[in-house]
Amino acid sequence: MSRGRAKAPILQLDAAQEQAAVTLIQRVLEDRFEVSLGSFEAQELLELFARELAPHYYNKAILDVQTHLRERFESIESDLWALEKP
Predict the structure, then answer these.
(1) Handedness of CA 8, 57, 17, 47 (dihedral sign)
(2) Contact 37, 45 (CB under 8 A)
(3) pLDDT for 31-83, tens place per residue?
(4) In 1-86, alpha helices (H)
(5) CA dihedral in degrees (73, 76, 82, 84; nearest 10)?
(6) pLDDT at 9
(7) What is the per-residue burial (b if ≥16 Cβ within 10 Å, else e) of 55-83?
(8) Origin, by domain of life (predicted)?
(9) d(CA 11, CA 29)
(10) Cα–Cα distances in Å, from 18 out to 5, 34, 56, 57, 83?
(11) What pTM was estimated for this model as a whole?
């Protein structure tokens, strides 16, 4: 099986966050599926998730912020119209 490196993940965690995520992956796979992974394998799985899934969550967050800002701008615009003098 080829383990060539794909594009770099869009999400970078600091060392403590990365270790916590690796530990979580190991624990969940062991508890729910009785699959034991070493740190290296769990790290690869984390990198796969970051590379393949993180962009979808990132893009969704961007869309959510755009929606929020659009609604906020409309509210501000409405407030400004209310301040207009006849």
Answers:
(1) negative
(2) yes
(3) 999 999 999 999 999 999 999 999 999 999 999 999 999 999 999 999 999 99
(4) 15-33, 39-52, 54-83
(5) -90
(6) 55
(7) eeeeeeeeeeeeeeeeeeeeeeeeeeeee
(8) Bacteria
(9) 22
(10) 19, 22, 19, 18, 51
(11) 0.71
Contacts of 37 (CB under 8 A, 6+ apart): 25, 26, 29, 30, 45
DSSP state of 5: -
Q: Which of 57, 19, 22 is nearest to 38 (CA)?
A: 22
Q: Find, among 77, 76, 9, the residue nearest to 45 by Cα.
A: 9
User: Which two three-digit tokens encode residue 9?
Assistant: 């993940």
